[in-house]
Amino acid sequence: DTGVSQDPRHKITKRGQNVTFRCDPISEHNRLYWYRQTLGQGPEFLTYFQNEAQLEKSRLLSDRFSAERPKGSFSTLEIQRTEQGDSAMYLCASSSLSGATNEKLFFGSGTQLSVL
Amino acid sequence: KNQVEQSPQSLIILEGKNCTLQCNYTVSPFSNLRWYKQDTGRGPVSLTIMTFSENTKSNGRYTATLDADTKQSSLHITASQLSDSASYICVVSAYSDKLIFGTGTRLQVFP
What we know:
The complex is a heterodimer. By secondary structure, chain A is mainly beta.
């Protein structure tokens, strides 16, 4: 399977715990995005990387959230001291920087987080 | 403010029927408009991408249209199938590469 892979698919945690999600993009893609999606809403941008550099972070990304892409390949998204409002689907997407403004974005299946 | 609005919010149709979903946007400067299909519990999958100069683009039974003057797009689904049941999300890209997502239209196709 050469698509975008996310792990785990589902995560249930208690409020106050830390959680970490992993995303493996399509291998030749140098751009990687994290989005958050709640029920009935479209995805909301969180952050994106070009290779290992984190180029933009949304104001939605509070100081409890941190994302890394240390070698420009896989990425992790960590949420510290989880709150019930963090419950959502966390989507990862990747694309290749080809210079075209209409480059296609490929999404993973997401990690569904439930904070009890 | 850059916004993407979709209608209807939800739609129920019978298998074999056609339907049209609408998208209005206020994103500027406009780069391209995308339609995605998202099955429940899965990530969105790209259906079409249209730039400013394109008026229509097809992908099988899906046909998207774009009117850049009125800032409207539509997604027409022909001869619907049960597997078309999903959320359809309109996404507009500004030249900053920022993607603005609509909230989607939830389509249910019944036999």
